[in-house]
Amino acid sequence: MVRTPKIVCIGAGSAIFGLSNMASIVRSPRLRGSELVLVDIDEAGLKTMTRLAQIMNESWDAEMTISGTTEREEALPNADFVVVSVQVGQREEVWELDWKIPLKHGVRQPYAENSGPGAFAHTARNAPLILAIAQDMERLCPDSWFLNFTNPLIRLTWVVQRYTKIKVVGLCHQLFWAYAMAATVLADRWGLQIPEGFHVHTNYDNEANLIPVILEGHKHMDIKAAGLNHFSWVYDIRDKETGEDLYPHLRERWLQHYRRDFEPLTREMFEIFGLMPTAGDAHMCEYLPWTHDPLTKPWEKYNLTLQSWEGNRRRRADRIAKAEAIVAGEQPVDQLKDAISEGVPEIVEAITFNDNRYYHQLNLPNNGLIPNLPDDAIVEVPGVISGFGIKGLGVPPLPEGIAELCRRELALSSLVVDAVVHGDQELALQALMLDPIMNDIDRARAILDDFLMTFAEYLPQFA
User: Fold this and answer.
1) CA-to-CA distance for 112 and 97, rounded, in angstroms?
2) Per-residue pLDDT for 17 more than 80?
3) In 101-174, where do the E strands start and end?
């Protein structure tokens, strides 16, 4: 008989991450009787989310053993899966500084999360914690899987892969944005109602418009894509019911007959490089050198809106309020039964029960999966998950222009990984100089100095 797994969630005190992930785990009939341990240094948030998980457990007859702790070393022994979604520093505050500090020195980033100078700071703050978790896993649960949800996903997953022996996969839901874009362009095919002026910008206020279109697209289409996280490209797109290849229709409709203001940067890259990008303008723009020129102001031409930090604060407050209301008995817990899964229970089930499950978006060491990208890099591909582990599926080479854009990002990310693990300021400056957003040596030095001073409490490796 298969042993029920032990799942440890680090960063579980966050209502943003915790609500959907915990609900999807606890509601899974096949994970009934599993052990779930929640870990967070925020005692108040941890207490709320642990009680919420217990309420789910009782209400949904999950028969799980659920506990919470602020000490991960208490949680990790004998863990089978360690789910990690952490942020060092208050997310909205430090992210806003990641954008404002380079701007102060004359560099306007389009997004400042996964590439650009701000992503260096984002990586540097989180790398020591990510590495410490993985090193604890080497001692306490060496055969477990590290399921990483923390951005920058390429870089932090690479930290675990390069500097430990722990099995790691990076997980992201960004491919759903491709479903939303394709569903919008091909809406007439299925009679879909698309909101006027619809876009796929990643902002809290846009969720009510975006999520229904994502769900409709996923209902009708199957998309296979590969590349890098937030910078992947559609290889194949088909009608789920008929199996018809939709790529010719999508290409002709979007490039010849559809709104030119709909994700215009994505449209332009599609037209120039021949494959449809998956992430939408707001994320894809981070990896490109053509999005920040102060003379041409491409952010205006392409409507590259920033992440709304105020919207993120409201989202956090709203989800904390929902969790607290359920714990207080003021709202029903069953409203969370329909929460969209981030993939954790599907992966846990597939490995535990040998499901041979196809999964559409996995960030793994390349090892030839994308032939014209470096073998040791973290790439994003579809894959199959079973008792044999998490295995990526090989795809044909990317078109050479796209591959070169990816190789540049991977060379930069590799340098960033080594710089932030070792606290090497010379490598850090070199990394900033390689960044596609950087355009001046003195600015790079000034930005690095400002980052190291502003975030000194979060950067012990550079002390």
Assistant:
1) 9
2) no
3) 145-148, 167-170
Q: Cα–Cα distances in Å, from 419 out to 98, 132, 180, 359? A: 17, 16, 37, 32
* Of 209, 203, 149, nearest in space to 180 by CA: 209
Are 172 and 363 in contact, with CB atoms under 8 Å apart?
yes
Tokens of 322: 């929902």
- CA angle, 335 then 18 then 282, to 5°: 100
Residue 358 to residues 11, 126, 382, 385, Cα–Cα distance (Å): 27, 30, 7, 6
Phi-psi region of 367 (alpha: psi -120 to 50; beta: other; left: phi over 0): left
- Angle subtended at Cα 202 by Cα 200 and Cα 204, rounded to the nearest 5 degrees: 115
Query: Burial of 337 by CB count in 10 Å (0-12 exposed, 13-18 middle, 19+ buried)?
Result: middle
Mean pLDDT across the stretch 117-139?
98
Does pLDDT of 312 surpass 90?
no
pTM of the complete model beyond 0.85: yes
pLDDT tens-digit map of 350-367 = 999 999 999 999 999 999
Distance CA 258, CA 253 (A): 6
Half-sphere exposure of 198 (CA within 13 A, CB side): 22
What is the helix (H) or strand (E) element at residue 369, kind and residue range?
Answer: none
The helix (run of H) or strand (run of E) holding residue 8 is strand 6-10
